[in-house]
Amino acid sequence: MSETTVMINGIKISVPAGTSILHAAQKAGFKIPTLCYHPDQEIKANCRICVVEVEGQKNLMPSCATAVSEGMVIKTTTARVLEARRTILELMMAHHPQDCLQCVRNGSCELQELAGEYDVRYNRFPQEDAHLPLDYSTPSIVRDPNKCILCGRCIELCTSKQTVNALGLAHRGFDTQVVPSIGQELFESPCVMCGQCIHACPVGAIDGREQISEFLAAASDPNKVIVTQIAPAVRLAVAEAFGSESGQLSMEQLVGALRMIGFDHVLHTNFAADLTIMEEGYELLERISNGGTLPMFTSCCPAWVRFAEVFYPDFLEHLSTCKSPQQMFGALVKTYWAEKMGISPVKIFSVSIMPCTAKKYEAVRPEMGDSGYSDVDMVLTTKEIIRLFQMTGVNPLKLDAAEFDPWMGEYTGSGVLFGASGGVMEAALRTVYEEMTGRSLVKLEFNEVRGMEGLKEAALDWDGTIVRVAVAHTLSNARVLMDQVAAGKSPYQFIEVMACPGGCIGGGGQPLTRTNEQRAKRMEAIYDEDRSRAVRKSHDNREIKILYNDYLHEILGHKSHELLHTKYTIKRKNI
Amino acid sequence: MCNCGDYIQDMRYVALEKMLDKYRHTTGKIIPVLQKTQEIFKYIPEEAIKIIAEELKIPSSEIYGVATFYGQFHLQVRGKNIIRVCTGTACHVQGGGKLLESITKTLGLSGGTMTTNDLMFTLEPVACLGACGMAPVMMINEDTYGRISPEEVPEIISRYMEKDGIEKCIA
Hints:
The complex is a heterodimer. Chain A is α/β, with parallel strands linked by helices. Chain A has 19 helices and 17 strands. In chain A, helix 7 crosses helix 13 (382-392). Chain A starts with a strand and ends in an 11-residue tail after the last helix. The longest helix of chain B is centred in the N-terminal third of the chain and has 20 residues, at 4-23. Chains A and B meet through strand 7 of A and helix 3 and helix 4 of B.
């Protein structure tokens, strides 16, 4: 590629032709502020905060949207540039609530950070707040349109990456707003509650719905036994929040920390993940041998399930009938586990800790009460659990390892894999292969379905039976695979879909996750944990065997269907 | 009460579907489709946006964005007669504010509502009507009224009331 040489603040630098001034300046060592710019998104040039001076140009140029040209002389530090940026900040702040201390993004807000850096001590413009109502219509996400700075990052995420199109810009001038669908509440839009817009938002205009106070109330109720399940992706983000690398915190340290902050019994969603593999693996085998509907799609991801219910109502029979691990766990904790422990299910308050905002929605779906009770009483996101650790002053990294509670705490490497895109597939393949061929796998890793590639596929020849599988993460990729099914041209038998980039490790309930680079690191930590487990195949899980032996009696049996499987309903929304 | 309205409504949706057929395979169609929709309904009902979105496979959020951006599109049902009152500088100094007040009072509008309950009138204050020499100015449909005093308003409006009082159920 040809190089272009430019002068930035007197420093000569060569960059590939077509590079933006923003990136050229970064390479030269100068930071230019950005708001609407996002490394994983298209260039929008909405906010103009990144303006710079270019010699020969009358106006200041947005550096994100201006490509360098040979001999260009750029200045990023002049008084004119700084004054323009500060004015933009003042204008934004005049329409932005000043309650930073009470904001969910206090300390992690991009606007707050810039106001600090640009030394905005007073505002020349009078404060004009819009006083728009907050949107609490979904159990997962809260929108505060008053805080929106109209950067457009959530819209692009929802439109291009997720192809959900729940959000759009409406009205004009000062009245411009980001609104769901036809100016309705979010729940009436096709929103699937993946929560990726939360990571996209530079300010506090979108956030997960918090239930910390409700949790504290439940935890202090002497009549409640708090039982928790924890998902595999949570551990990694907790470690990061306490200033460590993703893999540095052990699951067992986290168990101890959770007991310390009010959880009476700590169990593992991975146990239910192993169970999911048993049920889903056998469902696949049954569909293949009995001419059932294929390809079969995984159903672990509630955002994906809702996506299918909204956008592909005619193809719901392609979804596995298996509940997600969270809901399988929920149905068992108030039946099987309660029985084993001799605890009345009425007393059990089941809390799951998830990297996911859509899980909050999944837990309140009306069909999720097969135990006779609400299967999962509350879902706390990773972000909320970190907040609880911060409030209580408990640093899990400094604690000794503790044991999971019995009966539903044991898990295999396969269960761990559920946290990363391709993981359910890999776990299922390990079990299905051994069941199909009756032989042990020599190499457990299926590298074709690993990594951050948006669409992954593999063709496996198992004793003459060719099984073609595909894995998609982010819903735009899922749409590609679903459109093939709709056109009758899908070459696959089994497809895994996760709505979030990288799978659950990049979930909407994780602490702010800016880039795919960060997600890739967490993925590695998941693979490391799988490698480190003594038992790595779901069907070798000892407690799973006990569960089938003592309670469920057979895979895909009567009891399984009653507790572990579900059905889907068409959701009519304004798409 | 007659129920001829139901029939009229059905016919509008038939017209909408027929119109959408012509746009199925064209690009850059949102604005013309919305214009045609407004011709059919006299405004753009929410239900019509849903139908356009579904039929033309355009996200409803995108259609709503365009419909709310341009002043020419109306998302609320509008009255049979549109009264436009100039709020520009020239009209303002000649008593445009008083004129607007008088119209609001005559129509019995309050609380920011701009359309009368009987759907006969919609009041639309506008930035300029381009007739500053005749300030203060108002227009009712295509008729222009210049240099008018607030006192003349009830009589002028009553002309439109009478006319429509007779035609009301025939329309």
